[in-house]
Amino acid sequence: VGNSSVLTCSPKSDMTMVTWRISPEAGSLCILGYRTDENKTERINCSDSVDWKFRPDQDLALEIRQVGIADEGNYTCDVASPDGNFPKTYHLTVLVPPRLILSCDDHGNPVCKAATGKPAAQISWVLESNSTPKEEGHANGTVTVLSKFTAYSTSMINTTCIVFHPTGNQSKSVVC
């Protein structure tokens, strides 16, 4: 999320038309088209963040700027030539790194939160705990995971929470 993504499309020497069909999981179909005989492009129902990377007569790549969760979906490039159509489909999945929040509750127990990540993060503690993480889904597709550390002994001084996520792992320590 927040980065740019470029999807490539292979040209054919005798191509007559290229069409990018963008089918987001939420929202309506967007179409970018290019006719080689007229050197003409067409845009139908596309946001400003989706466009040709360069001029389509030079490069057929599609660029998605500032990728957001709403950009998830299928992206199909279809190159037409006298030999037929040559489609290539990408499925774009957007990852959102969670925010790690580590605090102490009213009873002096450490609480680790991996807030608004996509997909849901995994939480573990450096020292063994019998905590069961709880997940809360949000309307935008992100998930917050909460884990309370429950110590087997009360002689704890420093507790470390580790959050595992495809965008990178994080850890923080706290003394409660």
From TrEMBL:
PANTHER family from the UniProt entry: CELL SURFACE GLYCOPROTEIN CD200 RECEPTOR 2, CELL SURFACE GLYCOPROTEIN OX2 RECEPTOR PRECURSOR
GO molecular function per UniProt: signaling receptor activity
Compartments where found: Membrane
Residue stretches making up the Ig-like domain: 1-93
Protein name stated in the entry: Cell surface glycoprotein CD200 receptor 1-B
InterPro entries the record matches: CD200R, CD80_C2-set, Ig-like_dom, Ig-like_dom_sf, Ig-like_fold, Ig_V-set
Bilayer topology: Single-pass membrane protein
Organism: Cuculus canorus (Common cuckoo)
Alphabetically ordered keywords of this record: Disulfide bond, Glycoprotein, Membrane, Receptor, Transmembrane, Transmembrane helix
Upper classification of the organism: Eukaryota, Metazoa, Chordata, Craniata, Vertebrata
Gene Ontology cellular-component annotations: external side of plasma membrane
SUPFAM superfamilies registered for this protein in UniProt: Immunoglobulin (SSF48726)
Family under the similarity heading: Belongs to the CD200R family.
Membrane as UniProt keyword: yes
GO BP, sorted A to Z: regulation of neuroinflammatory response
Predominant cellular place of this UniProt entry's protein: membrane
Lineage: superkingdom: Eukaryota
